[in-house]
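Work Package 4 report. The design task specified in the project plan requires that, given a folded chain encoded as structure tokens, an amino acid be chosen for each position. We show below one input record used in the internal validation round.
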């Protein structure tokens, strides 16, 4: 089974198991896997007449919601989110996540944090025992004027190396939906990390907007497998 098919299985499982007739507000994550969850959600809305509003976590998510004819919600109006479904770049055995490969981690974290339930979907490649097996850096959103200072502080206090993420289809750096920059921190793989402490330390650096570490946030994850099955795991 292809990676894309595995993503589709995970997305469908999350929507089937966590969106019910009682669900009113759904947070929609960003990235390649969420596309399949939105497709399945749109199918169920058409088939079952579900009445849901969708809160986007990025420009991409907003476009997906509208393209599939779903109702676009807003955090100012929908202050309570029943469930958020989102992908990840890597998840460890405790469902500590690295997110932000697509540069959307700040809005993703806001929506996930204000949700009653946060569900993660991914293919088998993202399922790790320990962070670093599949993904080598933590994306950090920073205020543009402070990117050099943040990179220096990261290396000083945390080791490893910080790199400003450069754009592929434009000259210069990647600019987030919030108008900020992304520093990718390649941590020292030989060093044991307490990710809760690491996350707090980075968040306290002046100029940092948000990290791509999601610690103790995910309630459950679904991983689509090569053999066509779906493995689910609850947070320890």
């Amino acid at each position: 089974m292809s990676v894309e098919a595995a993503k589709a299985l995970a997305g469908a499982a999350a929507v089937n198991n966590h969106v019910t007739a009682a669900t009113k507000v759904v947070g929609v994550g960003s990235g390649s896997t969420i596309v399949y969850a939105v497709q399945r959600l749109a199918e169920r809305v058409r088939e079952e007449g579900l009445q849901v509003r969708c809160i986007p976590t990025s420009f991409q998510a907003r476009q997906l919601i509208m393209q599939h004819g779903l109702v676009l919600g807003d955090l100012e109006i929908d202050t309570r989110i029943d469930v958020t479904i989102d992908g990840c770049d890597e998840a460890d055995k405790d469902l500590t996540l690295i997110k932000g490969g697509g540069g959307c981690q700040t809005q993703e974290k806001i929506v996930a944090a204000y949700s009653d339930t946060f569900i993660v979907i991914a293919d088998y490649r993202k399922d790790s025992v320990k962070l670093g097996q599949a993904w080598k850096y933590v994306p950090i959103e920073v205020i543009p004027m402070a990117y050099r200072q943040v990179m220096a502080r990261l290396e000083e206090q945390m080791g490893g190396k910080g790199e400003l993420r450069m754009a592929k289809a434009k000259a210069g750096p990647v600019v987030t939906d919030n108008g900020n920059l992304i520093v990718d921190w390649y941590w020292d793989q030989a060093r044991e990390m307490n990710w809760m402490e690491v996350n707090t330390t980075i968040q306290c650096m002046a100029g940092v907007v948000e990290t791509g570490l999601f610690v103790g946030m995910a309630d459950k994850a679904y991983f689509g497998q090569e053999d066509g099955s779906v493995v689910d795991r609850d947070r320890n």
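The helical segments are 3-18, 34-48, 59-67, 105-113, 147-158, 195-203. Validation will be extended to a larger panel in the next phase.
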